[in-house]
Each structure stands twice: as C-alpha cells, then as structure tokens.
Amino acid sequence: MLNKYPLWKTLMVALVVALGALYAAPNLYGEDPAVQVSGLRGVEASAETLATIKSTLQQENIEFANIELENGQVLTRFKNTEAQLKARDVLDDALGRQYSIALNLTPQTPEWLAAIGGTPMKLGLDLSGGVSFLMEVNMSEAINKAKVGMVGDFRGDLINEKIRYQTVKEVNDDIVVIFRKVEDLEAAQSLFKKNYRDLVLAADEDTLTLTAKMTDEKLKEIREYALQQNITIIRNRVNELGVAEPLVQRQGKKHIVIELPGVQDTAKAKEILNATATIEFRLVDTEGDLNQALNGRVPANAILLRDKNGQPTLLKKRVMLTGDHITDAKSGFDEYSRPQVNISLDSAGGSKMSNGTKSNVGKPMATVFIEYKPTDKRDGEGNIIFEKVEEIISVATIQSRLGKTFRITGASSPAEAHNLALLLRAGALIAPITIVEERTVGPTLGAENVKLGFQAIVLGFALVFIFMIIYYKAFGVVANFALGANLVLIVGIMSLIPGATLTLPGMAGIVLTVGMAVDANVLIFERIREEIREGKTIQQAIHQGYESAFSTIIDANITTLIAALILFAVGTGPVKGFAVTLSIGIITSMFTSVVGSRTIVNAIWGGKRLKKLSI
C-alpha cells in the first residue's frame, strides 16, 4: 500500500522527536544567580564552611533559595542578583583569603531531569556575559627552564657513564662543560651526540671545553611545547576549581585567548588564571647549618625556603624533578590510614626520579610550590618580568628508590593531601603567563543579545509559518510541524554535546537552517503538485514527490554541510559557533523535512482513496 508506514517506524520517529524535546526542556527552566565558595591551596570547603556561610547570611538578613555542599564546594542560590552581589561582599569579608568566592549562574533544572543528563545549552560570552582574557606566555623563561633541565641532564649522564668533569654551567645561550682530560672530553662528546641529536656540539681540546647550543628547531619545539602545555594546564586548573568551563584558544606565537562565559566576578577569575605556578622536588640539606642560613650565611649549594606557616628549611639548590613530568596525582591513605598523595610520572620523569633517589633513601625530600607574579617591567625582548615566590608545601622521607609512580606522605590531614593532589594534577606551567588584555561583557548586555537573537528566530519562524500555511494549506501546516521539531532537535543536541556553546553567530546559523529546512519541503510539495497536474493519482503523486525530491535535497544539504565542516575546522570563535549550529541544523532538517514530514503525511493521508489534496 502506497504511503503507509508500519507502526514501528512511526513510533521511532515520534521517539526521536520526544527525546529531543526532553533534552531541550532544561533550557526552559532558566538560571538562578548563585555564589560558589571553593577552598584554595591547603583548605577545603566542608560542612563547617557551609554552616559558617549559612549563619553569616542569616545574620546579615540576606535571603537565599538554597545552599548545598557538593564536591568540596558550597553553592548558594539566590532569588535575585542584588542578594547575590551583597552575599559575595559579606562572604568575602567573613571567609577571608582561604576561599575563592565566585559569582555564577546555576541552572534550575529539576533533579530528575539532571539525573538523566539533562542540562541547558552553554551560552557564549556574547549571550551570557562573562570575561575574556588575552594571556602572554613568557618564552624566555621557557627556554631558561629548558637550559636548566639540560644542565641537570648533562650531569646525570656524565655521572652514570662515569665520565669525570670539572663543571657544567650556562654561559649566555650555551651550556658549557669543562673537563680535566681530553679522553673525558671525547667520551662526553660521543655520548651527547648519541643522546641529544637536537643540539649543536663544539669541542675545544685546548681549553678542554664542550659547548652545546640548541638548534633553531629545538628552540621552536620548546616554544610550541610551552604554549600547548600551558593551554592544557589552564583548562585543567579552571575545571579543577570549578569556576567555569573555559574556551581556551591559541593566538599567534605566544598568546592564549581565554573566555569564561557566565563568570561575573572578574577579580576571582584573574586570581585563578594568574596562579602561574610550578612544582619542584628538591632534597633537604641536612648537612647545612640552618641557624647560619637564617643569619644570611646560606651555603653555596643550598637555598633557604619557608612553608606556609613560615617554618624555614634548608634545601639543596639542585632540582631533582619539575612538575611538568607529572601525569596524575590522587590523594588517598597508606597502610596505616595516614593521608598520602599518589603521583604518576611520564617516562622521562620516572628516569630522573629513579636516578635522583637511588642514593638518597632515608633522606627528606621537599615539594616546592613556585609562583610567578607579574611586575610592571619588561625585558629587552618585550617580555614581562616576573617576581618568583617559592614556598614549601610538603616534606617527606624517601623510603625507597622511586620510579614512575611514588607517594608523598606527611600531610597533616586528608584535606591537605587532597589539595596537594589538586595542585600537582592541575600541572606546572612550563613558562609563566600574565594577562595583557581583559574584556568584560556584562550580563545585562548578554541578556539583551539573547533577547534580540530570540526575537530574530521567532520572527523568522513566524513569517515562514504564515507563508507555508497560505501557500500550501494543510501541507503547509505539516511543514510547520517539521520546522518546530527541527528547532527542538537542534536545541536538544546542542544541550547534549559536551563543550558545545551557543553564540550570537550560532543563533544566525539556526535562523539560516529554518530557511534551508523549509526549502526541502517546498521542493517536495512542488513536485507533488507537478505529479497531480500530470494526471497521477493522489497517492502516486505523494509517493513520487518524496522519492524524486529526495536526491536533490541530499545533494544540496551535503554540499552545505561540507562547507560548514570546513568553517568549523579552520575558523575560530564566532565562525566556529556559526558552523556548529549550521551543521547540526542541516542534519536535523534532513530528518524532519523528509522523514518527519512524510511520517505525518502518511499518518493523515496515506493509504486512502483521495480525489482532492489540500496542497
């Protein structure tokens, strides 16, 4: 029988549209202004923190809709932004610098819907408001760190191969190794040629020196690695602290663009992003005199550092390992139920740690947290000069020779172990970064953009709806149902895709897909009219109209989809936002315009003897 779908196919189409409507539903519930409190380094938000927040708000007569503790963060919802802003100021004074207090917009999605993965679409900076930063990576510091690492590698290789040397040091942009014998110089040159193919080596037998210089390719590799690693770590750091899901993009040779949609508190966002920290592992200098060091007489091979409580410790100047080799860090408990941090290293880090600890079992090792704070000064190359601040965050005894995995003990509490793991897991920046440009889009402007974009979509739909009903009558109503289902599916899919963000250009993409979706139905309906004029029966005309127009619709949509995918691949920012909604809209429009509209047509007119058709 012509134009008659089996029941299962009709139910399948209805199920797809229903699922789309289900996952699009969270966008109808709106958002609550909220204040999010997260513990900073060494501190964790707890039930006690929640009680403090609750009592503080009650004392100040600030009404809140809900307050809850989840994943080490306290989230307080408010009924209006006025109460939210007042609460932020009050809590900032009450909790002090141990906590990060950020303004957020929290979805009002019901628990049952959130439990099945229902979340509203993420809105871009231009729609939700938020902050955008342009950050600069200090490439000079990245190269300096690479040279320091090479000095340590050279020493380790020479010691392992039992090649005697006098000294290894940096001289300008080169690394110079001085030997006592020509035989040692030649052996070292042969060893380094094998191990370091990206270095240019020059030996001088008269002065017994071996000079190593990095090639242009090696310098380019260091810069690329520093930029990519910093991008990854910035994303991890913001995600770990729960402020927002950042949009992080590379710009040029040494800049990173960071967009934090929905973040209203610029100061807190800057505080988190400016935490340009690294981690280093050093041996404690147990032979040096701490009292003399405190009086200013620090041994040449040692440095004096303090922990967060101001307790001084004398450390070896040589760095055993830097944090950029850490691949994972998790807090837990040892066999005696004491808090510990389990650390995993990459292969190069595991080798360095093994070599560094094999002769130091039983000695204390310190984990040093290093933060680079930007100053107002710049060097000769235009790079920002940073002030280096170092702090000991953990001292633990080396129990055995360490490798790719080891543990740090000595944390005073599970909270301290958890926060140490967070810092280690968030990563160590290869080079310090600083904010060189800041842009803020207020929530009011973002709301205005949403309003205008929504009006454009509604107006576009309304004009198309009216035209289709006037021109195609009952079949026009079918096309309008398909258009509505198309919009629902676009919103549902955008809400489901992790990382998909709706921007103002994305709204333009949705409006464009409206025209493209109705164009498919116009092709089908015009072909049906043509078949009827040629004397075909109603059922034959409907069947032939859908069958004949299908190939034309597929060809037209595939070529547009290819163009959208190219835009997504090579475009950035607004172009990507447009390409995402256009690509999704093309796929859903092919489904709703062809499969969806035909399902409705078959259900109403299919398999019946008709003499007239309302088209």
Plain-language structure description:
The two termini are 22 Å apart. The chain is elongated and about 105 Å long. Helix 1 packs antiparallel against helix 13, helix 6 packs across helix 8 and helix 13 packs across helix 14. The longest helix has 54 residues. The chain has a five-stranded antiparallel beta sheet. It has a four-stranded antiparallel beta sheet with strand order 2-3-1-4, covered by helices on one side. It has a four-stranded antiparallel beta sheet with strand order 11-12-6-21. It folds into four domains: 184 residues, Multidrug efflux transporter AcrB transmembrane fold (Up-down Bundle); 77 residues, 2-Layer Sandwich (Alpha-Beta Plaits); 79 residues, 2-Layer Sandwich (Hypothetical Protein, Haloacid Dehalogenase-like Hydrolase, Chain: A, domain 2), CATH 3.30.1240; 166 residues, Gyrase A, domain 2, CATH 3.30.1360.200. The protein is of the alpha+beta class and 615 residues long. A hairpin with a 2-residue loop joins strand 7 and strand 8. 49% of the residues lie in helices and 25% in strands.
Structural class: alpha+beta
Shape: elongated
Q: Could you report the average pLDDT, rounded to the nearest whole number?
A: 82
Q: Given the structure, what is the number of helices?
A: 16
**CATH level-two architecture of the largest domain:** Up-down Bundle
The biggest beta sheet, please? Answer: 5 strands, antiparallel
Give me the count of strands. Answer: 22
| Total separate domains | 4
Helix percentage range: 40-55%
* Arrangement of strands in the largest sheet: 14-15-13-18-19
Strand proportion, as a percent range, falls in: 25-35%
Organism: Colwellia asteriadis
InterPro entries: SecD, SecD-TM, SecD/SecF_arch_bac, SecD/SecF_CS, SecD_1st, SecD_SecF_C, SecD_SecF_C_bact, SecDF_P1_head
Main location: membrane
Protein name: Protein translocase subunit SecD
